Amino acid sequence: MKNALIIFKKEIKEIIKNRSIWLPILAVSIMFSVLFPTIITISLESFIKDPDTNRFILRVFQDTENIERTFLDFIIKQFMVFLLLIPAMLPSLIAPASIVLEKESNTLEPLIATPVKTRELLLGKTLTSMVPSFITSLINFILFTIVVDSIAYIKFGILPLPTWEWLILAFILSPVISFIITMVSMIISSKSTDIRSAQGIGSVIIFPVYAVIGMQIAGLFILNAWFILIACLVLLALCPLLLKLAVRVFDRENILTKWKMK
Amino acid sequence: MIHVENLTKIFGSIKAVDNISFDISKGQVFSFLGPNGAGKTTTIRMLATLIKPTSGTIIIDDKDSFQNPEHIRSILGILTETPGMYEKISAYENLEFFSSFYDRDKIAIKTSIEKYLKIFDLWDRRNWPVKTYSKGMKQKLALARALLHEPKILFLDEPTAGLDPESAFMVRKFIETLKKDSCTTVFLCTHNLEEAQNLSDIVCIIKHRIITISTLDELQKNSGANTEIIFKNNPEKYKDIFEQFSEKNSIKITDNRVIVNISDPKKTNPEIIKKLSDAGAEIIYFNSLKANLEQIYLDMIKN
Fold it and tell me: Lower CB density within 10 Å: C or N end of chain B?
């Protein structure tokens, strides 16, 4: 574990110096956790006052007593799914970069020639990808909650967050997505030798998350606690398989003889 | 210190290393020579427990290497073909990172880093990112990394490649110091045969299989010696005399200079001089040269 933490600390130092990793995340965070929820929550009143929207809401959400609360809950569910982009995007940027940069600088051989165990190397890389993702994702969920609750309380006197969906998304689904994206990124990027193709891989890996967001916006489904729990279970079942595959890819001999080095 | 027996490594249909065996004692400098693709790096990787042999045994420090890989890696230092440093962090941070994997306290790590950065003349630039370093500086930094934990065995793959003459001299002097201390066993892979000749206790020439392995003295003895004679006149007419003594029929005549390879120069050289004098040759210069490693290497690889 000590060696995994040494790798983790060094990689974090490198990530902090790598703007191409944290700048997009900062932009997405500000957009989906602060900007959009602020605009939507503030403009909610004028939405509801609009007679057409009002009629539409009453038709969709029949028997509602508090129209503001109902509509706000709906909007929150629509927007909360965007927050899944953070735990998906960050590992898809960090994990391939972390592997490809090792290849570009030919540091893998001297690294695996130290007493570090292969599983410690894999754990170090996984932590590097998952810890910033989890922390950033949690900060975003908290920011989103503070923004929405503050404005909703001032405007309507209600605190719509946190909800069960919020808790499951923030503490179960986000880390599971981070883990899966990390493993897939590491497995695939072991085949690439330059940072551009690694980033290409990153953008393709998170496509399923875009698909889920798109399907929800299109109205194919609406997030609820049961739906998210089932998704968590399905994805959790995938985790051991991906871990097994990643451990095989991270075999010393594989790294030296089968990984494409620069 | 290192015992290798019937070591073989096969990649698919390619036999990279074919049944090699050797022993290296503590404190020896073992030069591992061979053309590109001869299996040198594969052998180093097997010895350093980075890849598993297809068959054979490796005992290092009295331990089977594949049952104790972490122990083996903790007592060896390796300089790989390419320096392999993290470019965005400083030289000091690089060394600090790599040395953290060895069982040493922080003060010992700091002392070692300072010691080796000063030895290799990099201390003043310790806080510079490695991407600002020249190729030679990176190579010296990689060598410092290999030495930081005071390894019992040092694997050096082309240690002076890419270095300027001054730095190359510094590295060779350092290897000589290690040799004098007799504490570190050095496994040296190099294409610089002069370097191997000057530093080695044992020379091993490999081309998938071991072609030869012995001390430099034995190699030179077995390869005979060159006798150099410079004549006042054209020496072509004395060719018959040289052919009587040259067992390998290796005679080179250029202008008035003759070089003859002779297996037992101590016995033969006086006889050559006598025969040439009897034949009326006017000799300006006569010298006995030991066969150098380059000649021996080229002969062996060619044959």
Answer: C
